UniProtKB/TrEMBL annotation:
It is found in: Cytoplasm. This is Aldose 1-epimerase. The keyword Phosphoprotein applies. GO terms for molecular function: aldose 1-epimerase activity; carbohydrate binding. It catalyses: alpha-D-glucose = beta-D-glucose. The lineage of its organism: Bacteria, Pseudomonadati, Calditrichota, Calditrichia, Calditrichales. Beta-D-galactose binds at residues 112-113, 212-214, 284.
């Protein structure tokens, strides 16, 4: 009898253990590494656009469309564990097709400006479109933010990835050479959004690819970004002329509103009487990142004290364009009907310096046949 009781006890113990185990497994099944694909409409010329949702085991989600390789939304937790969207964008493809200030897109062939759309390479002068006052901006009239990319999800052990590819034909927007481009977005189980950029060309061409996400860590744009604290590991920045073209000078940040070597609220000095701030209508400049030797380094961080959301930026790039959403003026109604008012989003674009093709003293942006362009940036989310 005693034996039967012992056996019964053991059975109960084993069954409860197994049930507990399966509960745990079920928990993980709710949040797991996954990619979902859904139809998201068509472009005017009938090309199918899809929305890909990448999720990780914690419940972080990134939604990406193959139009413009755009990150349409990015859900990350605040200090109370609440997941909210921390990037600006639209709910519908039509709004992206109509007009977008590069919300969440990949910009290229050349991120930021090229003076008067002109450069000389190997003795040949090239003229690009001038789509920003007298200058060329973000790849021209139809840059990589407005083309349809091929998308292919890739599953790995501890990350989910979406590989987007595009072939930019020789002469597109005035640039030389057929350029094969690939961008891989990855979501890891460490709440990181990794972006890798690859390119190959058959003629020498400038290439400077970046991601143009507008961040607002308050979640669903509850407030502007002026209380966000920014840290940039840079002793110098590149001052600009009144059309936002670098003058060529590397100016120390010391004693200027451009010193973010200690985390500082973006709004603390943005209205200072400073000529550079006047030209940018706020911050719209390139910082020269310290110790940029081509390897991945922690170079910037953004923190919203109210939500506790913290974003660190690791990059192998020499520059960081910090744009404080100065041109947002309340005329755009974004996701969930939110009006994007002045400085409701900010961009932190890791890249080479603007107008490098006209500044031989800047790190080179020229890609030649036989070379492989490969750069990497990680936006890592946590709470503080
Ligand atoms: C540029 C801004 C520009 C914005 C476009 C930024 O990368 O630096 O000058 O207005 O992109 O939305």
């Amino acid at each position: 009898m005693r034996n039967t009781t012992t056996i019964l006890c053991w059975i109960i113990l084993i069954v409860s253990f197994l049930t507990l185990g399966s509960c745990k497994k079920h928990d993980k099944e709710i949040h797991k590494l996954d990619v979902k694909k859904e139809n998201w409409g068509r472009t005017k010329d009938g090309q199918e656009i899809y929305l890909y949702t990448l999720s990780n085991i914690h419940g972080m989600q990134i939604k990406i469309i193959n139009y413009g390789a755009i990150v349409q939304s990015l859900f990350v937790p605040d200090k109370s564990g609440k997941y909210e969207d921390v990037v600006l964008g639209y709910d519908r493809l039509d709004d992206y097709l109509k007009d977008s200030p590069y919300f969440g897109a990949i910009v290229g062939r050349y991120g930021n400006r090229i003076a008067r759309g002109r450069f000389t390479l190997d003795g040949v002068q090239y003229q690009l479109a001038t789509n920003n006052g007298p200058n060329h901006l973000h790849g021209g009239i139809k840059g990589f933010d407005k083309v349809v990319w091929n998308a292919e999800p890739i599953h790995e052990k501890d990350k989910v990835r979406l590989k987007l590819t595009y072939l930019s034909p020789d002469g597109e927007e005035g640039y030389p050479g057929n350029l094969k481009v690939a961008v891989i977005y990855s979501l890891t189980n460490h709440n990181e959004l990794e972006i890798e950029y690859f390119a190959q060309t058959d003629k020498a061409t400038p290439v400077n690819l970046t991601h143009h996400g507008y961040f607002n860590l308050t979640g669903h744009c509850k407030r502007d970004i002026l209380e966000h604290q920014l840290w940039i590991n840079a002793d110098y920045f590149t001052p600009v002329d009144s059309t936002l073209i670098p003058t060529g000078e590397l100016r120390p940040v010391e004693g200027t509103p451009f010193d973010f070597r200690q985390p500082t609220a973006i709004g603390a000095r943005i209205n200072d009487p400073d000529e550079q701030l006047k030209y940018g209508r706020g911050y719209d400049h390139n910082w020269v990142l310290n110790q940029a030797d081509g390897t991945l380094k922690l170079q910037a961080a953004l923190y919203d004290p109210q939500s506790g959301r913290y974003m660190q930026i690791y990059t192998d790039q020499p520059g960081l364009q910090f744009y404080s959403g100065n041109f947002l003026d309340g005329s755009i109604v974004g996701k969930g009907g939110v009006v994007y008012k002045h400085r409701y989003g900010l961009c932190l674009e890791t890249q080479h310096f603007p107008d490098s093709p006209n500044h031989p003293e800047f790190p080179s942006t020229i890609l030649r046949p036989g070379e492989q362009y490969h750069t990497k940036t990680i936006y890592k989310f946590s709470i503080k």
